[in-house]
Amino acid sequence: MDLKDKSLLETRAFIGGEWHEADKTFEVINPATGETITQVADCSTDQLSKAIDLAHAAQKDWAKKTGKERANILRKWFDLMVEHADDLAQILTAEMGKPLAEAKGEIMYGASFIEWFAEEAKRTYGDIIPQHQADKRIVVIQQPIGVVGSITPWNFPNAMIARKVGPALAVGCSVVARPAELTPLSALAMAVLAERAGVPKGVLNIVPSTDAAAAGEELCANSKIRKITFTGSTRVGRLLMKQCAEDIKKVSLELGGNAPFLVFDDADLDAAVEGAVAAKYRNAGQTCVCANRIYVQASVYDEFAEKLAEKVAELKTGNGFEDGVTIGPLINDAAVEKVQNHITDALDHGATVKLGGNRLEGTFFEPTVIVDVPHKALIAREETFGPVAGLIKFDTEEDVIDMANDSEFGLAGYFYTRDLGRVWRVAEAMETGIVGVNTGIISTEVAPFGGIKQSGLGREGSKYGADDFTEIKYICMGGI
Ligand SMILES: NC(=O)C1=CN([C@@H]2O[C@H](COP(=O)(O)OP(=O)(O)OC[C@H]3O[C@@H](n4cnc5c(N)ncnc54)[C@H](OP(=O)(O)O)[C@@H]3O)[C@@H](O)[C@H]2O)C=CC1
Ligand SMILES: O=C(O)[C@H](O)CS(=O)(=O)O
Protein backbone atom coordinates (compact mmCIF):
# COMPACT_ATOMS: atom_id res chain seq x y z
CA MET A 1 0.00 0.00 0.00
CA ASP A 2 1.14 3.54 -0.70
CA LEU A 3 -1.41 5.69 1.13
CA LYS A 4 -1.47 9.45 0.70
CA ASP A 5 -3.17 9.74 4.11
CA LYS A 6 -1.59 7.11 6.35
CA SER A 7 -3.93 7.98 9.23
CA LEU A 8 -6.67 6.10 7.35
CA LEU A 9 -4.95 2.82 8.26
CA GLU A 10 -6.50 2.86 11.74
CA THR A 11 -6.18 -0.23 13.95
CA ARG A 12 -8.01 0.89 17.10
CA ALA A 13 -11.73 0.50 17.84
CA PHE A 14 -13.94 3.58 17.42
CA ILE A 15 -16.13 3.69 20.53
CA GLY A 16 -18.06 6.74 21.76
CA GLY A 17 -16.13 8.93 19.36
CA GLU A 18 -12.77 7.93 20.85
CA TRP A 19 -10.10 5.56 19.52
CA HIS A 20 -9.50 2.60 21.84
CA GLU A 21 -6.92 -0.16 22.05
CA ALA A 22 -7.98 -3.57 23.42
CA ASP A 23 -6.24 -6.00 25.77
CA LYS A 24 -5.32 -8.10 22.75
CA THR A 25 -5.02 -7.72 19.01
CA PHE A 26 -5.55 -9.89 15.95
CA GLU A 27 -3.73 -10.07 12.62
CA VAL A 28 -5.24 -8.83 9.38
CA ILE A 29 -3.80 -10.87 6.53
CA ASN A 30 -3.48 -9.98 2.84
CA PRO A 31 -5.15 -12.99 1.13
CA ALA A 32 -3.06 -12.50 -2.03
CA THR A 33 0.28 -12.86 -0.25
CA GLY A 34 -0.48 -14.36 3.16
CA GLU A 35 1.46 -11.46 4.69
CA THR A 36 0.28 -9.67 7.83
CA ILE A 37 -0.87 -6.15 7.05
CA THR A 38 -1.22 -5.04 10.68
CA GLN A 39 -2.68 -5.92 14.07
CA VAL A 40 -6.13 -4.64 15.05
CA ALA A 41 -7.77 -4.21 18.46
CA ASP A 42 -9.61 -7.41 19.41
CA CYS A 43 -12.40 -5.87 21.48
CA SER A 44 -13.99 -7.63 24.42
CA THR A 45 -17.71 -8.04 24.98
CA ASP A 46 -17.40 -5.43 27.73
CA GLN A 47 -16.05 -2.95 25.18
CA LEU A 48 -18.93 -3.82 22.83
CA SER A 49 -21.41 -3.32 25.65
CA LYS A 50 -19.81 0.05 26.44
CA ALA A 51 -20.17 1.05 22.80
CA ILE A 52 -23.86 0.15 22.96
CA ASP A 53 -24.30 2.31 26.07
CA LEU A 54 -22.57 5.27 24.39
CA ALA A 55 -24.57 4.78 21.19
CA HIS A 56 -27.74 4.77 23.27
CA ALA A 57 -26.70 7.98 25.06
CA ALA A 58 -25.84 9.72 21.78
CA GLN A 59 -28.87 8.66 19.78
CA LYS A 60 -31.46 11.00 21.34
CA ASP A 61 -29.53 14.19 20.53
CA TRP A 62 -28.70 12.87 17.05
CA ALA A 63 -32.42 12.28 16.46
CA LYS A 64 -33.21 15.81 17.67
CA LYS A 65 -31.15 17.28 14.83
CA THR A 66 -33.19 18.19 11.79
CA GLY A 67 -33.04 15.93 8.77
CA LYS A 68 -31.19 18.69 7.02
CA GLU A 69 -28.53 18.90 9.74
CA ARG A 70 -27.96 15.13 9.55
CA ALA A 71 -27.97 15.40 5.76
CA ASN A 72 -25.17 17.98 5.78
CA ILE A 73 -22.96 15.76 7.94
CA LEU A 74 -23.63 12.69 5.76
CA ARG A 75 -22.93 14.73 2.65
CA LYS A 76 -19.58 15.82 4.13
CA TRP A 77 -18.81 12.16 4.90
CA PHE A 78 -19.63 11.27 1.27
CA ASP A 79 -17.34 14.03 -0.01
CA LEU A 80 -14.48 12.78 2.20
CA MET A 81 -14.97 9.17 1.03
CA VAL A 82 -14.75 10.31 -2.59
CA GLU A 83 -11.72 12.52 -1.83
CA HIS A 84 -9.93 9.56 -0.21
CA ALA A 85 -11.28 6.86 -2.54
CA ASP A 86 -7.85 5.79 -3.80
CA ASP A 87 -6.53 5.21 -0.29
CA LEU A 88 -9.74 3.46 0.80
CA ALA A 89 -9.50 1.21 -2.27
CA GLN A 90 -5.91 0.25 -1.46
CA ILE A 91 -6.87 -0.66 2.10
CA LEU A 92 -9.77 -2.73 0.77
CA THR A 93 -7.66 -4.60 -1.80
CA ALA A 94 -4.97 -5.28 0.81
CA GLU A 95 -7.35 -6.91 3.31
CA MET A 96 -9.88 -8.54 0.96
CA GLY A 97 -7.92 -9.18 -2.25
CA LYS A 98 -10.26 -7.85 -4.91
CA PRO A 99 -8.55 -6.08 -7.85
CA LEU A 100 -7.92 -2.38 -7.24
CA ALA A 101 -10.33 -1.32 -9.97
CA GLU A 102 -13.10 -3.35 -8.31
CA ALA A 103 -12.13 -1.99 -4.90
CA LYS A 104 -12.37 1.57 -6.21
CA GLY A 105 -15.76 0.65 -7.65
CA GLU A 106 -16.87 -0.64 -4.25
CA ILE A 107 -15.71 2.55 -2.54
CA MET A 108 -17.79 4.65 -4.95
CA TYR A 109 -20.70 2.21 -4.56
CA GLY A 110 -20.49 2.45 -0.77
CA ALA A 111 -20.18 6.23 -0.92
CA SER A 112 -23.26 6.38 -3.15
CA PHE A 113 -25.36 5.02 -0.25
CA ILE A 114 -24.09 7.79 2.03
CA GLU A 115 -24.90 10.34 -0.68
CA TRP A 116 -28.33 8.83 -1.36
CA PHE A 117 -29.34 8.75 2.30
CA ALA A 118 -27.95 12.23 2.91
CA GLU A 119 -30.72 13.24 0.53
CA GLU A 120 -33.31 10.88 2.03
CA ALA A 121 -32.58 12.32 5.52
CA LYS A 122 -34.74 15.31 4.49
CA ARG A 123 -37.63 13.10 3.35
CA THR A 124 -38.73 11.09 6.40
CA TYR A 125 -42.31 12.06 5.68
CA GLY A 126 -45.45 11.24 7.66
CA ASP A 127 -49.17 11.40 6.89
CA ILE A 128 -52.30 13.32 7.71
CA ILE A 129 -55.24 10.90 7.69
CA PRO A 130 -58.86 12.12 7.30
CA GLN A 131 -60.37 11.80 10.77
CA HIS A 132 -62.94 9.12 11.55
CA GLN A 133 -64.81 11.38 13.98
CA ALA A 134 -65.51 15.13 13.78
CA ASP A 135 -63.58 16.01 16.94
CA LYS A 136 -60.48 13.92 16.05
CA ARG A 137 -57.38 14.66 13.99
CA ILE A 138 -54.97 11.93 12.90
CA VAL A 139 -51.28 12.42 12.25
CA VAL A 140 -48.72 9.75 11.36
CA ILE A 141 -45.01 10.37 11.92
CA GLN A 142 -41.88 8.31 11.36
CA GLN A 143 -39.32 8.12 14.18
CA PRO A 144 -35.86 6.50 14.30
CA ILE A 145 -35.96 3.01 15.75
CA GLY A 146 -33.02 3.81 18.06
CA VAL A 147 -29.67 2.00 18.40
CA VAL A 148 -28.84 -0.36 15.52
CA GLY A 149 -26.48 -3.33 15.63
CA SER A 150 -24.72 -4.03 12.32
CA ILE A 151 -22.89 -7.23 11.34
CA THR A 152 -21.27 -7.35 7.92
CA PRO A 153 -19.21 -9.80 5.81
CA TRP A 154 -15.73 -9.70 4.32
CA ASN A 155 -16.73 -9.66 0.65
CA PHE A 156 -17.75 -5.98 0.50
CA PRO A 157 -16.13 -4.56 3.64
CA ASN A 158 -16.92 -0.94 2.74
CA ALA A 159 -20.21 -1.03 0.83
CA MET A 160 -22.07 -3.39 3.15
CA ILE A 161 -21.46 -1.09 6.11
CA ALA A 162 -22.29 2.05 4.10
CA ARG A 163 -25.55 0.39 2.91
CA LYS A 164 -26.62 0.05 6.56
CA VAL A 165 -25.06 3.03 8.33
CA GLY A 166 -26.23 5.47 5.62
CA PRO A 167 -29.98 5.00 6.16
CA ALA A 168 -29.63 4.41 9.91
CA LEU A 169 -27.84 7.71 10.53
CA ALA A 170 -30.03 9.55 8.02
CA VAL A 171 -33.22 8.89 10.01
CA GLY A 172 -31.60 9.57 13.40
CA CYS A 173 -30.43 6.15 14.59
CA SER A 174 -27.02 5.45 16.09
CA VAL A 175 -25.02 2.37 15.07
CA VAL A 176 -22.74 -0.19 16.70
CA ALA A 177 -21.03 -2.08 13.88
CA ARG A 178 -18.93 -5.23 14.08
CA PRO A 179 -17.03 -5.82 10.84
CA ALA A 180 -15.86 -9.28 9.75
CA GLU A 181 -12.64 -10.41 11.43
CA LEU A 182 -10.98 -10.82 8.04
CA THR A 183 -11.65 -7.25 6.90
CA PRO A 184 -11.90 -4.67 9.72
CA LEU A 185 -9.62 -2.01 8.18
CA SER A 186 -12.11 -0.68 5.63
CA ALA A 187 -14.68 -0.11 8.39
CA LEU A 188 -12.14 1.67 10.61
CA ALA A 189 -11.06 3.90 7.73
CA MET A 190 -14.70 4.84 7.17
CA ALA A 191 -14.93 5.82 10.84
CA VAL A 192 -11.84 8.05 10.53
CA LEU A 193 -13.66 9.98 7.80
CA ALA A 194 -16.99 9.95 9.66
CA GLU A 195 -15.28 11.61 12.62
CA ARG A 196 -13.77 14.25 10.30
CA ALA A 197 -17.21 14.80 8.74
CA GLY A 198 -18.63 15.71 12.13
CA VAL A 199 -20.61 12.58 13.01
CA PRO A 200 -21.16 13.22 16.74
CA LYS A 201 -19.42 11.06 19.35
CA GLY A 202 -21.23 7.76 19.96
CA VAL A 203 -23.44 7.94 16.84
CA LEU A 204 -21.15 5.56 14.92
CA ASN A 205 -19.13 2.85 16.68
CA ILE A 206 -16.85 0.28 14.98
CA VAL A 207 -15.95 -2.59 17.32
CA PRO A 208 -13.66 -5.20 15.71
CA SER A 209 -13.29 -8.59 17.39
CA THR A 210 -12.44 -12.22 16.73
CA ASP A 211 -15.35 -13.74 18.64
CA ALA A 212 -18.23 -13.23 16.21
CA ALA A 213 -20.62 -15.43 18.17
CA ALA A 214 -20.08 -13.51 21.42
CA ALA A 215 -20.52 -10.19 19.62
CA GLY A 216 -23.71 -11.44 18.00
CA GLU A 217 -25.07 -12.67 21.29
CA GLU A 218 -24.42 -9.30 22.97
CA LEU A 219 -25.93 -7.28 20.12
CA CYS A 220 -29.01 -9.51 20.04
CA ALA A 221 -29.48 -9.73 23.82
CA ASN A 222 -28.79 -6.11 24.77
CA SER A 223 -32.18 -4.37 25.02
CA LYS A 224 -30.62 -1.01 24.12
CA ILE A 225 -30.21 -2.40 20.60
CA ARG A 226 -33.57 -2.11 18.85
CA LYS A 227 -32.59 -3.46 15.44
CA ILE A 228 -30.09 -5.88 13.95
CA THR A 229 -29.03 -5.45 10.33
CA PHE A 230 -26.97 -8.30 8.88
CA THR A 231 -25.38 -9.33 5.60
CA GLY A 232 -23.89 -12.78 5.35
CA SER A 233 -24.80 -16.44 5.22
CA THR A 234 -28.30 -17.74 5.68
CA ARG A 235 -26.95 -19.97 8.46
CA VAL A 236 -25.86 -16.99 10.57
CA GLY A 237 -28.87 -14.90 9.57
CA ARG A 238 -31.18 -17.63 10.86
CA LEU A 239 -29.24 -17.76 14.15
CA LEU A 240 -29.40 -13.98 14.61
CA MET A 241 -33.13 -13.99 13.90
CA LYS A 242 -33.62 -16.63 16.59
CA GLN A 243 -31.46 -14.64 19.04
CA CYS A 244 -33.54 -11.49 18.37
CA ALA A 245 -36.85 -13.23 19.02
CA GLU A 246 -36.43 -13.01 22.82
CA ASP A 247 -36.33 -9.20 22.67
CA ILE A 248 -38.68 -8.87 19.66
CA LYS A 249 -35.95 -6.93 17.90
CA LYS A 250 -36.41 -5.92 14.28
CA VAL A 251 -34.03 -7.64 11.87
CA SER A 252 -32.96 -6.92 8.31
CA LEU A 253 -31.19 -9.84 6.64
CA GLU A 254 -29.27 -9.85 3.35
CA LEU A 255 -28.38 -13.49 3.09
CA GLY A 256 -27.09 -16.11 0.71
CA GLY A 257 -28.14 -16.42 -2.90
CA ASN A 258 -28.17 -19.00 -5.66
CA ALA A 259 -28.83 -16.83 -8.70
CA PRO A 260 -30.07 -18.53 -11.87
CA PHE A 261 -28.84 -17.03 -15.15
CA LEU A 262 -31.05 -18.01 -18.11
CA VAL A 263 -30.07 -17.72 -21.80
CA PHE A 264 -32.93 -18.19 -24.22
CA ASP A 265 -32.47 -19.12 -27.88
CA ASP A 266 -33.52 -15.65 -29.06
CA ALA A 267 -30.96 -13.87 -26.85
CA ASP A 268 -28.13 -11.68 -28.13
CA LEU A 269 -25.47 -14.28 -27.29
CA ASP A 270 -22.57 -11.83 -27.18
CA ALA A 271 -24.49 -9.64 -24.75
CA ALA A 272 -25.43 -12.73 -22.73
CA VAL A 273 -21.78 -13.80 -22.54
CA GLU A 274 -20.77 -10.32 -21.40
CA GLY A 275 -23.52 -10.36 -18.78
CA ALA A 276 -22.57 -13.84 -17.60
CA VAL A 277 -18.91 -12.87 -17.14
CA ALA A 278 -19.94 -9.78 -15.15
CA ALA A 279 -22.50 -11.61 -13.04
CA LYS A 280 -20.36 -14.69 -12.40
CA TYR A 281 -16.76 -13.54 -12.04
CA ARG A 282 -17.14 -10.15 -10.28
CA ASN A 283 -15.20 -10.26 -6.99
CA ALA A 284 -13.90 -13.69 -8.08
CA GLY A 285 -17.47 -14.95 -7.79
CA GLN A 286 -17.69 -13.90 -4.12
CA THR A 287 -20.91 -11.92 -4.16
CA CYS A 288 -24.38 -12.93 -3.01
CA VAL A 289 -25.86 -11.93 -6.37
CA CYS A 290 -23.36 -13.83 -8.52
CA ALA A 291 -24.85 -16.00 -11.26
CA ASN A 292 -24.55 -19.34 -9.49
CA ARG A 293 -26.04 -21.62 -12.18
CA ILE A 294 -26.28 -20.85 -15.90
CA TYR A 295 -29.14 -22.40 -17.90
CA VAL A 296 -28.80 -22.26 -21.70
CA GLN A 297 -31.50 -23.28 -24.17
CA ALA A 298 -30.46 -26.39 -26.10
CA SER A 299 -30.26 -24.86 -29.60
CA VAL A 300 -27.69 -22.23 -28.53
CA TYR A 301 -25.94 -24.20 -25.76
CA ASP A 302 -22.76 -25.14 -27.61
CA GLU A 303 -22.32 -21.70 -29.20
CA PHE A 304 -22.83 -19.95 -25.86
CA ALA A 305 -20.41 -22.33 -24.10
CA GLU A 306 -17.72 -21.65 -26.72
CA LYS A 307 -18.18 -17.88 -26.57
CA LEU A 308 -18.21 -17.87 -22.77
CA ALA A 309 -15.03 -19.95 -22.52
CA GLU A 310 -13.31 -17.59 -24.94
CA LYS A 311 -14.18 -14.54 -22.81
CA VAL A 312 -13.36 -16.23 -19.50
CA ALA A 313 -9.94 -17.23 -20.87
CA GLU A 314 -9.16 -13.49 -21.14
CA LEU A 315 -9.60 -12.96 -17.37
CA LYS A 316 -6.29 -12.39 -15.57
CA THR A 317 -5.78 -13.94 -12.13
CA GLY A 318 -3.31 -12.34 -9.71
CA ASN A 319 -2.60 -9.89 -6.93
CA GLY A 320 -5.24 -7.18 -6.97
CA PHE A 321 -2.54 -4.49 -6.92
CA GLU A 322 -1.11 -5.65 -10.28
CA ASP A 323 -2.23 -3.82 -13.41
CA GLY A 324 -4.75 -5.69 -15.52
CA VAL A 325 -5.65 -8.28 -12.88
CA THR A 326 -9.37 -9.04 -12.97
CA ILE A 327 -9.59 -12.05 -10.65
CA GLY A 328 -8.08 -11.82 -7.16
CA PRO A 329 -7.60 -14.55 -4.57
CA LEU A 330 -10.43 -16.27 -2.75
CA ILE A 331 -10.73 -15.13 0.84
CA ASN A 332 -9.34 -18.29 2.47
CA ASP A 333 -8.62 -22.02 2.13
CA ALA A 334 -12.19 -22.94 3.11
CA ALA A 335 -13.50 -20.95 0.18
CA VAL A 336 -11.17 -22.80 -2.22
CA GLU A 337 -12.17 -26.15 -0.77
CA LYS A 338 -15.87 -25.32 -1.31
CA VAL A 339 -15.16 -24.48 -4.97
CA GLN A 340 -13.17 -27.69 -5.46
CA ASN A 341 -15.97 -29.69 -3.85
CA HIS A 342 -18.54 -28.21 -6.25
CA ILE A 343 -16.35 -29.01 -9.26
CA THR A 344 -15.68 -32.59 -8.12
CA ASP A 345 -19.37 -33.17 -7.47
CA ALA A 346 -20.33 -31.80 -10.90
CA LEU A 347 -17.78 -34.08 -12.61
CA ASP A 348 -19.09 -37.02 -10.59
CA HIS A 349 -22.52 -36.23 -12.05
CA GLY A 350 -21.28 -36.35 -15.64
CA ALA A 351 -20.17 -32.75 -16.22
CA THR A 352 -16.87 -31.88 -17.94
CA VAL A 353 -14.44 -29.00 -17.43
CA LYS A 354 -14.34 -26.80 -20.55
CA LEU A 355 -11.90 -24.26 -19.09
CA GLY A 356 -9.76 -23.99 -15.94
CA GLY A 357 -10.69 -26.14 -12.97
CA ASN A 358 -7.43 -25.88 -11.04
CA ARG A 359 -6.33 -24.31 -7.78
CA LEU A 360 -3.32 -22.07 -8.29
CA GLU A 361 -0.80 -20.80 -5.71
CA GLY A 362 -2.21 -19.77 -2.33
CA THR A 363 -5.98 -19.20 -2.54
CA PHE A 364 -6.02 -18.25 -6.23
CA PHE A 365 -8.32 -20.33 -8.44
CA GLU A 366 -8.48 -20.48 -12.23
CA PRO A 367 -11.60 -18.89 -13.75
CA THR A 368 -13.51 -22.03 -14.69
CA VAL A 369 -16.32 -23.11 -17.04
CA ILE A 370 -17.98 -26.49 -16.61
CA VAL A 371 -20.47 -27.89 -19.14
CA ASP A 372 -23.14 -30.60 -19.12
CA VAL A 373 -23.90 -29.92 -15.48
CA PRO A 374 -27.06 -31.66 -14.21
CA HIS A 375 -29.59 -29.50 -12.35
CA LYS A 376 -29.20 -31.69 -9.24
CA ALA A 377 -25.44 -31.05 -8.89
CA LEU A 378 -24.19 -29.23 -5.77
CA ILE A 379 -22.99 -26.30 -7.91
CA ALA A 380 -26.63 -25.64 -8.80
CA ARG A 381 -27.94 -26.14 -5.28
CA GLU A 382 -25.46 -24.25 -3.07
CA GLU A 383 -23.83 -20.81 -3.33
CA THR A 384 -20.39 -21.57 -4.79
CA PHE A 385 -18.82 -18.20 -3.94
CA GLY A 386 -16.01 -18.76 -6.45
CA PRO A 387 -15.03 -18.16 -10.11
CA VAL A 388 -16.75 -21.26 -11.52
CA ALA A 389 -19.61 -21.21 -14.05
CA GLY A 390 -21.68 -24.40 -14.36
CA LEU A 391 -23.73 -24.60 -17.58
CA ILE A 392 -27.02 -26.52 -17.57
CA LYS A 393 -29.00 -27.26 -20.76
CA PHE A 394 -32.77 -26.67 -20.95
CA ASP A 395 -35.54 -27.16 -23.52
CA THR A 396 -38.61 -25.05 -22.73
CA GLU A 397 -39.41 -21.81 -20.91
CA GLU A 398 -41.63 -23.70 -18.49
CA ASP A 399 -38.88 -26.20 -17.67
CA VAL A 400 -36.29 -23.54 -16.98
CA ILE A 401 -38.57 -21.45 -14.80
CA ASP A 402 -39.26 -24.53 -12.69
CA MET A 403 -35.52 -25.22 -12.38
CA ALA A 404 -34.72 -21.56 -11.67
CA ASN A 405 -37.26 -21.52 -8.84
CA ASP A 406 -36.19 -24.91 -7.48
CA SER A 407 -34.15 -23.33 -4.65
CA GLU A 408 -34.68 -22.24 -1.05
CA PHE A 409 -32.90 -19.02 -2.02
CA GLY A 410 -34.42 -16.06 -3.85
CA LEU A 411 -32.06 -13.09 -4.00
CA ALA A 412 -31.19 -12.33 -7.64
CA GLY A 413 -31.91 -13.93 -11.01
CA TYR A 414 -30.97 -12.98 -14.56
CA PHE A 415 -32.14 -13.82 -18.07
CA TYR A 416 -31.45 -12.85 -21.66
CA THR A 417 -34.14 -12.72 -24.29
CA ARG A 418 -35.38 -10.26 -26.90
CA ASP A 419 -39.00 -11.38 -26.73
CA LEU A 420 -41.02 -8.75 -24.85
CA GLY A 421 -43.72 -11.19 -23.81
CA ARG A 422 -41.10 -13.54 -22.40
CA VAL A 423 -39.47 -10.65 -20.51
CA TRP A 424 -42.69 -10.05 -18.59
CA ARG A 425 -43.57 -13.76 -18.14
CA VAL A 426 -40.14 -14.77 -16.82
CA ALA A 427 -39.54 -11.63 -14.72
CA GLU A 428 -42.88 -12.13 -12.98
CA ALA A 429 -42.38 -15.89 -12.56
CA MET A 430 -38.85 -15.72 -11.13
CA GLU A 431 -38.91 -16.20 -7.34
CA THR A 432 -36.26 -13.61 -6.47
CA GLY A 433 -36.17 -10.12 -4.98
CA ILE A 434 -34.05 -8.81 -7.85
CA VAL A 435 -34.26 -9.63 -11.59
CA GLY A 436 -31.70 -8.59 -14.20
CA VAL A 437 -33.09 -8.61 -17.75
CA ASN A 438 -30.40 -8.48 -20.46
CA THR A 439 -27.91 -7.28 -17.86
CA GLY A 440 -25.60 -9.02 -15.40
CA ILE A 441 -25.05 -6.06 -13.08
CA ILE A 442 -27.97 -4.91 -10.96
CA SER A 443 -26.31 -3.22 -7.98
CA THR A 444 -27.18 0.43 -7.44
CA GLU A 445 -28.13 2.64 -4.50
CA VAL A 446 -31.27 3.87 -6.23
CA ALA A 447 -33.03 0.48 -6.33
CA PRO A 448 -34.25 -1.80 -3.48
CA PHE A 449 -31.69 -4.58 -2.91
CA GLY A 450 -32.88 -7.69 -1.11
CA GLY A 451 -34.19 -11.21 -1.35
CA ILE A 452 -37.13 -13.48 -0.61
CA LYS A 453 -37.36 -17.00 0.80
CA GLN A 454 -34.13 -17.85 2.67
CA SER A 455 -32.23 -14.97 1.03
CA GLY A 456 -33.44 -12.53 3.60
CA LEU A 457 -35.79 -9.88 4.93
CA GLY A 458 -36.01 -6.19 4.09
CA ARG A 459 -34.51 -4.00 1.40
CA GLU A 460 -31.37 -1.82 1.32
CA GLY A 461 -30.92 1.29 -0.80
CA SER A 462 -33.61 3.19 -2.73
CA LYS A 463 -36.53 5.16 -1.30
CA TYR A 464 -37.48 1.95 0.56
CA GLY A 465 -34.12 1.60 2.32
CA ALA A 466 -34.80 3.91 5.27
CA ASP A 467 -38.09 2.21 6.21
CA ASP A 468 -36.26 -0.57 8.06
CA PHE A 469 -34.71 1.99 10.42
CA THR A 470 -37.87 3.87 11.43
CA GLU A 471 -40.97 3.18 13.49
CA ILE A 472 -44.36 4.53 12.44
CA LYS A 473 -46.28 6.39 15.17
CA TYR A 474 -49.95 7.27 14.87
CA ILE A 475 -51.14 10.28 16.89
CA CYS A 476 -54.87 10.64 17.51
CA MET A 477 -55.95 14.09 18.76
CA GLY A 478 -59.42 14.36 20.31
CA GLY A 479 -61.63 17.20 21.56
CA ILE A 480 -61.00 19.31 18.46
N1 LIG B 1 -25.32 -12.57 1.20
C1 LIG B 1 -24.08 -12.14 1.19
O1 LIG B 1 -23.76 -11.06 0.76
C2 LIG B 1 -23.04 -13.02 1.73
C3 LIG B 1 -23.21 -14.37 1.75
N2 LIG B 1 -22.24 -15.16 2.26
C4 LIG B 1 -22.42 -16.60 2.24
O2 LIG B 1 -21.97 -17.12 3.50
C5 LIG B 1 -20.97 -18.08 3.27
C6 LIG B 1 -19.96 -18.01 4.36
O3 LIG B 1 -19.31 -16.74 4.31
P1 LIG B 1 -18.96 -16.07 5.63
O4 LIG B 1 -18.24 -14.82 5.47
O5 LIG B 1 -18.33 -17.12 6.48
O6 LIG B 1 -20.40 -15.66 6.13
P2 LIG B 1 -20.85 -15.60 7.64
O7 LIG B 1 -22.32 -15.47 7.59
O8 LIG B 1 -20.24 -16.69 8.40
O9 LIG B 1 -20.22 -14.20 8.17
C7 LIG B 1 -20.87 -13.00 7.93
C8 LIG B 1 -20.65 -12.10 9.15
O10 LIG B 1 -21.28 -12.70 10.29
C9 LIG B 1 -20.33 -12.90 11.33
N3 LIG B 1 -20.69 -14.08 12.10
C10 LIG B 1 -20.31 -15.36 11.92
N4 LIG B 1 -20.88 -16.15 12.85
C11 LIG B 1 -21.63 -15.33 13.65
C12 LIG B 1 -22.46 -15.52 14.80
N5 LIG B 1 -22.64 -16.74 15.33
N6 LIG B 1 -23.06 -14.45 15.35
C13 LIG B 1 -22.88 -13.22 14.83
N7 LIG B 1 -22.12 -12.96 13.75
C14 LIG B 1 -21.51 -14.02 13.17
C15 LIG B 1 -19.02 -13.05 10.59
O11 LIG B 1 -17.96 -12.79 11.49
P3 LIG B 1 -16.50 -13.36 11.14
O12 LIG B 1 -16.32 -13.25 9.67
O13 LIG B 1 -15.60 -12.46 11.92
O14 LIG B 1 -16.51 -14.77 11.61
C16 LIG B 1 -19.18 -11.98 9.54
O15 LIG B 1 -18.93 -10.71 10.08
C17 LIG B 1 -20.38 -17.71 1.91
O16 LIG B 1 -19.77 -18.83 1.33
C18 LIG B 1 -21.60 -17.25 1.17
O17 LIG B 1 -22.28 -18.38 0.70
C19 LIG B 1 -21.10 -14.65 2.81
C20 LIG B 1 -20.89 -13.27 2.76
C21 LIG B 1 -21.83 -12.37 2.18
O1 LIG C 1 -23.25 -8.98 -0.42
C1 LIG C 1 -22.98 -8.90 -1.57
O2 LIG C 1 -22.48 -9.79 -2.23
C2 LIG C 1 -23.27 -7.58 -2.22
O3 LIG C 1 -24.53 -7.16 -1.77
C3 LIG C 1 -23.25 -7.68 -3.70
S1 LIG C 1 -23.52 -6.17 -4.45
O4 LIG C 1 -24.36 -5.31 -3.59
O5 LIG C 1 -22.20 -5.56 -4.67
O6 LIG C 1 -24.20 -6.54 -5.69
TrEMBL record:
Q: Which InterPro entries match?
A: Ald_DH/histidinol_DH, Ald_DH_C, Ald_DH_CS_CYS, Ald_DH_CS_GLU, Ald_DH_N, Aldehyde_DH_dom, Aldehyde_DH_Superfamily, Succ_semiAld_DH
Domain of life of the native organism: Bacteria
Q: Where is the active site?
A: 254
Q: Name one Pfam family in it.
A: Aldedh
Residues covered by the Aldehyde dehydrogenase domain: 20-475
Query: Which controlled-vocabulary keywords does the entry list?
Result: Oxidoreductase
Sorted alphabetically, which PROSITE patterns does this protein's record hold? ALDEHYDE_DEHYDR_CYS, ALDEHYDE_DEHYDR_GLU
Q: Which family does it belong to?
A: Belongs to the aldehyde dehydrogenase family.
Q: What is this protein called?
A: NAD-dependent succinate-semialdehyde dehydrogenase
Give the species. Parasulfitobacter algicola
